[in-house]
Amino acid sequence: MLTFIGLGLYDEKDISVKGLEAIKSADSIFLEGYTSRLMGADIKKMEEYYGKKVIFLGRDDVEKHPDNILDCAERGSAVFLTGGDPMVSTTHSDLRIRAKMRGIPTQIIHGASIQSAVCGLSGLQNYRFGKSCSIPYPEKNWFPTTPLDTILQNIEQDLHTLVFLDIKPDRFMTVGEGVLLIEQMAEKRNLSAPQIFVGMARAGSAEPYVLAGDSEKLKKADFGAPLHVLVIPSSLHMMEKEYLETFAGL
Ligand SMILES: C[S@@+](CC[C@H](N)C(=O)[O-])C[C@H]1O[C@@H](n2cnc3c(N)ncnc32)[C@H](O)[C@@H]1O
Questions:
Q1: Best residue among 7, 14, 36 to mutate for probing ligand 1, ranked by most atoms within 8 Å of CB
Q2: Broadest EC class (predicted)?
Q3: What's the pLDDT at 137?
Q4: I need a labelling partner for 230 at 20 to 30 A (CA). Which of 43, 76, 162, 217 fits?
Q5: Which atom of ligand 1 is nearest to the CA of 86?
């Protein structure tokens, strides 16, 4: 059996009771650390909380060489842990399909996701969001501007955009870096950049930080420790505007 478990948003205690029980009875425990991270917990803390050893996986271990996970799931019960919900903005449906092809039963135990947390923190209504996008750190000769297309297409349809910010082994993109990159994309394409941004940090922690405003305001602000995420709102409904004024300094 292969069980996909969502860990929720911030620390080891954000997991559901069902998820924790599945870990406690599992033979092998895998944790992927490249699509999201629990910033309030490290592996040691998680192992202490679960009372079990955790095997840490990088992108290649999951996407290119998943045989070890599937072998363990074939022999006994394996759990596969992911920050947030395991199937939101990840590629883990591929692993579930591979398991099915090998005749391995699977199940999903869902977790709180950044996709819904942004609605609570910003007051932007979930049914007014269009396609989301991710901003990667640019590399030498590689500066994709497709996230700007997604944002502008959504604005044209009066839809908000959730923008995921890059996670690298040694750094996490900040709200300020994300805003600057969007402005540089607009400049490169000779298009206008969005006017309002909503930045959020540490959703799920006791001290999430939310700030709305123009690019200068967001670039100057200190959002503190990661993870960070951005929303580019389209037109604001009266209640969305009031919520952002009340809770995000708009
Ligand atoms: C690719 S998405 C994966 C989403 C995850 N599977 C989920 O359901 O929450 C990861 C990105 O979402 C944002 N994110 C995830 N958790 C966050 C948190 N607790 N606070 C702020 N941003 C977060 C960050 O921008 C991060 O790079």
A1: 36
A2: transferase
A3: 97
A4: 43
A5: 6
Burial 69-98 (b: 16+ CB within 10 A, else e): bbebbeeebbbbbbbbbbbbebebeebbeb
Question: Exposed (0-12), middle (13-18) or buried (19+): which is 140, by Cβ within 10 Å?
Answer: exposed
Return the structure tokens found at 111: 């977790």
Co-location of 123 and 240 in the same domain: yes
Task: Assess whether the C-beta atom of 89 lies below 6 angstroms from ligand 1.
Answer: yes
Number of domains in the chain: 2
Answer whether 174's CB lies under 8 Å from 221's CB: no
Q: Is 160 annotated as a binding residue?
A: no
Interface confidence, given as ipTM, is: 0.99
Residue 155 in marked binding region: no
Q: Is 114 annotated as a binding residue?
A: yes
Q: What's the whole-model pTM score?
A: 0.97
Q: Do residues 133 and 239 both lie within one domain?
A: yes
The domain that contains 184 carries what CATH number? Answer: 3.30.950.10
Last residue of a domain, one of 109, 143, 177: 109
Q: What is the pLDDT of residues 87-113, one digit of tens each?
A: 999 999 999 999 999 999 999 999 999
Residue 244 CB neighbours (<10 A): 22
Could you count the other beta carbons within 10 Å of the beta carbon of residue 178? 25
Identity (one letter) of the amino acid at 49? Y
Give percent above pLDDT 70 in the chain. 100
- Whether residues 14 and 134 share a domain: the answer is no
85 annotated ligand-binding residue: yes
Q: Are residues 47 and 152 in the same domain?
A: no
- Number of neighbouring beta carbons within 10 Å of residue 125: 13
